Amino acid sequence: MKYHLFNIIPLFLVTTLLCCKNEKKIPRAIEINNIKIEKPNLKYGLDFNKFSSKEYKIKKGDTFGDILENNGIDYPEVYQILKKIKSSVNIRKLQIGKPYTLLFTKDSIITPKYFIYHPGPLGYTVVNLRDSIYGKKVEKPVRVVELQATGIIKRSLYETMTNSGYNSMLTYFLADVYAWTIDFTRLDKGDRFKVIYNEKFVDDSISIGIERIKAAYFEHKGKGLYAFEFIHDKNKGIVDYFDDKAKNLRRAFLKSPVKFSRISSRYNLKRKIAYYGRVKPHKGTDYAAPVGTPIMATANGRVIESRYAKGNGNYVKIRHNNKYSTQYLHMKRRKVRAGQYVKQGDVIGWVGMTGYTSGPHVCYRFWKNGRQVDPYKQKLPEAKPISKSLRSEFFEKIKPLKTKLSCLYFEDEAHEIKLVMNYNDFTEN
């Protein structure tokens, strides 16, 4: 009897299911599937769907305590919150203009549940203001991505970079790499570059700056110059850039005391100076630049003069060794004093219009063996090359980078390649 019963039950279930299948009623399972389930809206580690939020910016005079008191939290409670979070976060110094968020629960829109301070893209601070009071600082993970850039100069390097959609800071990094070998105030239309570099991102899309240039190729006046990053003193961690023949790009002197300016007047012993209205030797090179542009020491040395003179205005003179000295005239303001040691690239003052001058610029003067000369006609000393023991390591390192650079095409080359490919497709068909 039991055996028959066990046979009947499955049969009954199958029959019931078949009958249900033929019914016109909507199955309950479908009703469940049609229920709209709200996806979490996660920000700062919290589901914003569960809260109402208010966005603000820090105003002058705002403090963490004032913000809480203005939102319904009494001072004794504020004091307890500060006491509990002081060991984990520092919330006392808030930057003017930086955003913060207050989150309110659905059951209490009077006093906030969370305070979120986000001063920059790298991280944020969350403070739980109720129940289990705590504070935590969250640093966002930084992702380093290798990128490539190519460009053909039409007007300026900066304009080419920005018009091509690259990070504008790449301009300054590239200029630093070639600071000793290429004068970026004298670029020609048609000059071109290829760059392999690392850029840092948070949240996958927000750039927080260029990390470094790994390799580059810059073609100036038809002559190409490679640059490869290499640590040539591992004990001191000294990094320089070398060409494809292991020759150091760094020189004893920078090409220019200011970045991205233009030469308004060259060294000329027979020049008629408009200010004086007569022929007077111009024993310097004038770099026109906006007032306030930083002026850099072109080489390591000791400041021997830092003062004001009627014709020179505010000026600085640096002795680099027994052979070379440089001078920088018409500064708005000087940053260094006599006797101070400065390194190549240090800011020593800012472009101005002091002394006898008709416009903002820095007059750069160059002495060799006590005589003023044209720096652009001097064969300046080179930096220390790669040691013989590291040369094989260097050539092995640059091999894949050089291959990558060769695979990058300029805009005109890419167009030609596309035309060839289209032609081949046409002829095959």
Give an account of the 3D structure.
This protein is of the alpha+beta class. The protein folds into 4 domains: 2-33, no CATH class; 44-139, Nuclear Transport Factor 2, Chain: A (Roll); 144-251 and 390-429, Nuclear Transport Factor 2, Chain: A; 262-377, Glucose Permease (Domain IIA). The protein is 23% helix and 35% strand. The protein contains 8 helices and 24 strands. The chain has helices at residues 2-22, 28-33, 64-69, 75-85, 157-163, 169-177, 388-406, 411-428; strands spanning 42-43, 46-47, 51-57, 99-105, 114-120, 123-128, 134-139, 143-152, 192-202, 206-220, 223-233, 238-242, 262-265, 272-273, 278-279, 285-288, 294-296, 301-309, 313-319, 324-334, 341-342, 347-351, 361-368, 371-373. The strands form 5 sheets. Strands 13, 16, 17, 18, 19, 20, 21, 22, 23 and 24 form a 10-stranded antiparallel sheet that branches. A 5-stranded antiparallel sheet has the order 3-4-5-6-7, with helices on one face. Strands 8-9-10-11-12 form a 5-stranded antiparallel sheet, sandwiched between helices. The longest helix has 21 residues, at 2-22. The chain is globular. The termini are far apart. 25% of the residues are buried.
Summarize the structure.
Helices cover 23% and strands 35% of the residues. The protein has 429 residues and is an alpha+beta fold.
